[in-house]
């Protein structure tokens, strides 16, 4: 088998696995799917509820425009793969794998991201408690050390991407990982909390002062939701 065919077969298998997983489970419990189609999830707060830390205009554009684009792109990729698979056009199906990864990852990442946030007047900000606090103290030394390491990871992202607090499924320990563009967290890690480092998440408000955004967003992190996700993972 030629190297080109091997790459095509590998990409096709990955695309079809991701396609079936997305259709049947939405990849994350919070990811909206209706009759096999990805849908834009409703936010549990108003667009302006995270001010002054994240402006209402940013939230509206981020959710209604950018996330919707990932939803539309994911549905288009899934339709193309299904059609190509039905025709036996494996090369066509494999060629869509990058789009499935990008838009599917964008949909999953943002669906979890919205749940990670809450108004500072409600559950947003502060520090985690319970089992999550104990795990952070054990694996990072302290919450303050963890936050500094997370901000350092965010600042080190070249271009667009995400930084994630993850749980190692086998060891049960916490780690920090970064992912480029919209690449989702997969493999041995369970994503618990992510911070979006794409410019569309902050530029209208913070312009090129992204370090200020990385500091500000901690005031609206919903540790109750993150802690519940940790205990269920």
UniProtKB/TrEMBL annotation:
Domain Manganese/iron superoxide dismutase C-terminal: 128-228
Family listed: Belongs to the iron/manganese superoxide dismutase family.
Obligatory cofactor(s): Mn(2+)
GO cellular component: mitochondrion
Reaction(s) the record says it catalyses: 2 superoxide + 2 H(+) = H2O2 + O2
Organism superkingdom: Eukaryota
Enzyme class: oxidoreductase
Protein task: Destroys radicals which are normally produced within the cells and which are toxic to biological systems.
Chain segments annotated as transmembrane: none
Origin species: Parathielavia hyrcaniae
Domain Manganese/iron superoxide dismutase N-terminal span(s) in chain numbering: 39-118
The protein's Enzyme Commission number: 1.15.1.1
Record key words, sorted: Antioxidant, Manganese, Metal-binding, Oxidoreductase
Residues the record lists as binding Mn(2+): 62, 110, 196, 200
GO molecular function, one term: manganese ion binding
UniProt name for this protein: Superoxide dismutase
């Amino acid at each position: 088998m030629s190297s080109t065919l091997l790459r095509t077969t590998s990409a096709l298998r990955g695309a079809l696995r991701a396609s079936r997983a997305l259709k049947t489970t939405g990849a994350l419990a919070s990811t909206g799917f209706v009759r096999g189609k990805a849908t834009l999830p409703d936010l549990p707060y108003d667009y302006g509820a995270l001010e002054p830390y994240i402006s209402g205009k940013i939230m509206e554009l981020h959710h209604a425009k950018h996330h919707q684009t990932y939803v539309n792109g994911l549905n288009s990729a899934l339709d193309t793969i299904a059609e190509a698979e039905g025709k036996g056009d494996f090369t066509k199906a494999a060629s869509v794998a990058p789009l499935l990864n990008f838009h599917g990852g964008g949909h999953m990442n943002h669906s979890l991201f919205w749940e990670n946030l809450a108004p500072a007047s409600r559950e947003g900000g502060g520090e985690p408690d319970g089992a999550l606090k104990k795990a952070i103290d054990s694996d990072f030394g302290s919450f303050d050390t963890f936050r500094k390491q997370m901000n350092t990871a965010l600042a080190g992202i070249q271009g667009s991407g995400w930084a994630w607090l993850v749980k190692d499924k086998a060891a049960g320990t916490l780690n920090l990982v970064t992912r480029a563009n919209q690449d989702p967290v997969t493999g041995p890690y369970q994503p618990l909390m992510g911070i979006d480092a794409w410019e569309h998440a902050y530029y209208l408000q913070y312009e090129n002062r992204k370090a200020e955004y990385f500091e500000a967003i901690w005031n609206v992190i919903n540790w109750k939701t993150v802690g519940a996700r940790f205990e269920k993972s």
